[in-house]
User: What shape does this take?
Amino acid sequence: MTKLTKNKKLALSKIDKTKVYPITDAINLLKEITTVKFDASVDIDVRLGVDPRKSTQMVRGVVTLPHGTGKLVRVLVLCTPDKEEEAKNAGAEHVGLDDYIAKIKDGWTDVDVIITMPSVMGKVGALGKILGPRGLMPNPKSGTVTMDVGKTVQEVKAGKIDFKVDKYGIVHSSVGKVSFAPEKTVENIREFIAVLHKVKPTAAKGVYLKKIYVSSTMSPGIQVDVKSI
Assistant: This one.
């Protein structure tokens, strides 16, 4: 059995497990119980009333958080030479094609987002077995397969993220940093939930947003009152 640290015990003592917290109270409590020495991420976990085994109930989408995630997002753009300057000017850390495809085949995946063009998906598609399990495979539905690479790089850098329900019916995402003012984190969460509503499958019946939890890096989860969002 894992031994609880002093800080973990203190954090758990401040959370009432029988209580469902209004969103603002949950974020304020999260700031209070986060004791790590770095600027921890604020994460959200939403249990949905869907059966992801059915294609008609798959949930995925893209959201641009109004205040970003607070993370440095490292971007690789796989494109033809005529688009390289556009991608670099937009802030992409890595730009190229064949050389980066070779690096990825050798095991390099030191990026957070990969953006590419429809015309080179034939080459990029061969990387599916490497990029897919890491959540890095470009996809038209998430906006990462596009001719407008410059605009997409800027959006990703500004806080555009994609999400997808897992096999347990839960959507996970980062929605800010503990250092954010509480109202900024709350605004990010409300935008995230609003987009979740927009992509609700028509085949999903009953309660759609079942439970919502927020947590920070290495902190316990705090259950949030869905109606407060």
